[in-house]
Amino acid sequence: MTREPYPVRAAGLPERITIHEVGPRDGLQNESVIVPVEVKAEFIARLAAAGHRVIEATSFVHPKWVPQLADASQLLESMERVPGVRYPVLVPNDRGLDRALEHGVEEIAVFASATETFAARNLNRTLESQFEMFEPVIARALAHGLRVRAYVSMCFGDPWEGPTPIGQVVSVGRRLLDLGCFELSLGDTVGVGTPGHVAALIEAFGGPAGLAVHFHDTYGQALANTLAALREGVTVVDASTGGIGGCPYAESATGNLATEDLVWMLHGLGVETGLDLASLVETSTWLAARLGRPSPSRVVQALGGTPPAGPADRATTPAPGQGTTADNVKE
C-alpha cells in the first residue's frame, strides 16, 4: 500500500499553504451525537501533534441551537494549548465575544451570508441588517487586540436562490475586510462551485490577498475547486480532518473537504503543509470509532480503514433537535 503520493512539483502553485482546521468546530457541530469534552480535547491535541498550526476549537453560539458545542467553556478550560498554535473560536454576537474574552481567546471568527434567504434562515437578518449584528463585535474585538476572521456562506450558490451573483459576494466580503477582518473565508456551503467559478470570484476580488477558501464536497468538486484557488494564489484552505461536518442550517450541505484528501493532493503537487499524513489518518480512524461511523475521507479509507466502534467507544448521548434555523445565533 502506497502511504504517500509521489511528489511532482507543479508550476503556478504556492510553495506552502496553511490549512485552517475546522474539524473540532464546523465538523463536530453537525454530528448527531454529543461528543464528550474530553474526546474533543484529545482530538485537538492530536491535530496539533500532527502539525496543525491553526485549529478552530469551538463556537460560542447559543447551546439551544448548536447543542454539540454547548461545552465550549469547559473545552477551552481543559484543553492543552501548544505554543505556536492558533485556536480561534467562532462568535455570533456580543455575548459570544464576552465569553471568548473571559477565556483569554486571542482570535475569533464571525460569519455572514452572501444571500438574503440564508441570512434570514441562519441569522434572522436581511443581507444588509446582518452587519448591524457583527460590526460592533468586530470593532470591540479589534479594540481588545484580537484578530478577527470572517466567513461568508453561500458564496457560489444558495439552495433557495440558486447561483449567487459574484458581485453580491464581493460586496459582502469587501465590507467585512474593510471592517478590519484580517482574513475572509469564501464558503461553498452547499458544494455547488466549479473551478471556473472559483477563479472568477477570486479575480473579482482583485486577487487572493486576504482570501481563504472553504469547500464542501457535495458534488465531488472540493479538491478541483481548491486547486483552482491555489492557481489564483490563495494560500489558506479550510478543511476538516476525516471530512466530518457540514452545515446544520442547509440540509443539502454535505461534509467538508477532508484534510487528509487535501494533504494527499498537496504533497503530490510538491506543496508543503507542515502536516504528517499518517498522524492525521490515525486521528481520523480514532475519531471515527468514537463517532460510531466510518470516515468519509477517501484517503482515510485507503490508508487507515475504520473499525466499527465498540459500545464503550461511542459518544451515545443523542443530540436534541436543532430548533428553527432563523434563531440559531441568539444568546
From TrEMBL:
InterPro entries: Aldolase_TIM, HMGL, PYR_CT. Keywords: Lyase, Metal-binding. Residues 315-331 have a biased composition (Low complexity). It comes from the Bacteria. Pfam families: HMGL-like. Signal peptide: none annotated. Residues 297-331 are annotated as: Disordered. Coiled coil: none annotated. Residues 17-281 form the Pyruvate carboxyltransferase domain. GO terms for molecular function: lyase activity. Gene3D superfamilies: Aldolase class I (3.20.20.70). SUPFAM superfamilies: Aldolase. Belongs to the HMG-CoA lyase family. This is Hydroxymethylglutaryl-CoA lyase. It comes from Streptosporangium longisporum.
